[in-house]
Amino acid sequence: MLGYSLHVSLPDTGHDCHSLGRERYDSILRETQLRVLDTYVDEGRNHYYDVERV
């Protein structure tokens, strides 16, 4: 099994930004033949996705 880690983080630009949401990220990953194994959030509220190719 080959695993990947996807880190989603945006720089602090002073502009409002909004997450696509977990459902949309899951959909994008499925479309690219990746399945979410686990997720993590760090102290800076950055989201991490552990995925594998299916």
Report the sheet-strand fraction: 35-45%
Q: What is the string of SSEs from the N terminus onward?
A: EHEE
Cα-atom radius of gyration:
12 Å
Task: Measure the end-to-end span.
Answer: 9 Å
Biggest sheet: strands side by side, in what order?
1-3-2
Query: What is the total domain count?
Result: 1
Tally the beta strands.
3
Rough shape?
globular
Largest sheet: 3 strands, antiparallel
Binned, the helix content reads 10-25%
| Secondary-structure content class | alpha+beta
Mean pLDDT: 77
Helical segment count: 1
Uncertain regions spanning at least 5 consecutive residues:
none
Describe the model.
- It is a single chain.
- This protein has one helix spanning 22-31, and strands at 3-8, 34-41, 47-53.
- The protein is an alpha+beta fold and 54 residues long.
- It has one domain.
- Strand 2 (34-41) and strand 3 (47-53) form a beta hairpin.
- The model has no long low-confidence stretch (mean pLDDT 77).
Concise structural overview:
With 54 residues, the chain is an alpha+beta fold. It has one helix spanning 22-31, and strands spanning 3-8, 34-41, 47-53.
